[in-house]
Amino acid sequence: MAANFDRIQQQMQSELEKFKACRKKLISTRQQLDAQLNENKVVQEELDVIEPDGSVYKLIGPVLVKQDLEEAKQTVGKRIEYITAEIKRNDTGIKDVEKKRGVSQEALSKLQHQYQQFLTKAAAKA
Q: Does the keyword Chaperone apply (predicted)?
């Protein structure tokens, strides 16, 4: 009987570790997305300061290629939209993992309580 409880407890612990790893990955992704968003916002601010006849260059590999100002603004705007959507999707994933972790923790707590009751009864019989 005790072996069953140990096995169940180990399974629950294994599941919690999986959730922690998944959450850690999602948070790491979120941090990367935030950094990209901030970088693109800085670029957007710089593009807004450039006069209409100013020059903009895009780095493609080892070469700087002249780019139209409006095209550059559109590209950065689309990147910001994409990154913002990815952040929302990532936040949803974090919330889902948190919900699942809460359910798993409740189940583990119940199993630990049952295990303690089992040990108390076993000690009383001995």
A: yes
